[in-house]
Amino acid sequence: MSPEVKAFFDEATNTVSYVVRDPMSKKAAIIDSVLDFDYASGHTDTASADAIIAWVKETGLEIEWLLETHVHADHLSAAPYLQKHLGGKIGIGEKITVVQDTFGKVFNEGTEFQRDGSQFDQLFKQGDSFHIGQLRGDVLHTPGHTPACLTYVVGDAAFVGDTLFMPDFGTARCDFPGGSAETLYDSVQKILSLPDQTRIFVGHDYKAPGRDVYAWETTVGEQKAKNVHVGGTNQRDDFVRMRTERDASLDMPRLIVPSLQVNMRAGQMPEPEENGTVYLKVPINKL
After folding, report:
1. CATH architecture of 4-259
2. Sheet with 157-161, edge to edge strand ranges
3. Tens digit of each residue's pLDDT (9 = 90 or more) over 15-56
4. What is the value of pTM for the model shown?
5. HSE-up of 183 (CA within 13 Å, CB side)?
6. What is the Rg, in whole angstroms, of the alpha carbon atoms belonging to the chain?
């Protein structure tokens, strides 16, 4: 079956969120939502999430899942806000526990921060399946960018998060804690083993040089033939060398500090302190 896919692009973070609908019913899922955040003021805003809510209600959809492809380092998740207004279960990969343990230490969260993934409603592992109405979704564990990265294969569509970008942009960075260029290459091959006609929906787009418009949909066949990092005759050793050298030159994502603290909590903010205010920490010389 072929799901209906509606994309919502957030230019501030270059993130693409998706509403994935069973064409035989009103059941749907939302993948990789965005909570707007102004780092300078510490203010959050729900405009991006509200646009999704308005479209879902206008279309009369029933949300069954709020899925995260991984713990994002470049935007905050709006999953709890969407859950409050639309329902649905929040899901992520079971290796979220590895990410929580790593960054629980980085942010000195203490024992009150649970590192067992219990903040999420569903933890998926390789080979798991779920349903959106009559549509079956299959889970591929595709680590490398982070240990917890998943690809959701729903009918003829694969939602790959940051593992792959558009063919003219390549692949995700692998220099975050727990990342690995070798592992990412193997994960990409897992995705590219899907049928050539499988639609691939990427998690971000940054307009590759020479391209004037944003894009987020491609196919397995196109990735195999044209991806500048892993397509054509590119080999594993060449990829690992390129990826390692390129990652060493990259700056940290602008929103990595707030994003990690919020997203490892399934989109929830840390608990308010005794004055009723929520605070996010900035670790010095740790990232």
Report:
1. 4-Layer Sandwich (3.60)
2. 129-132, 135-141, 150-154, 157-161, 199-202, 217-219
3. 999 999 999 999 999 999 999 999 999 999 999 999 999 999
4. 0.97
5. 17
6. 18
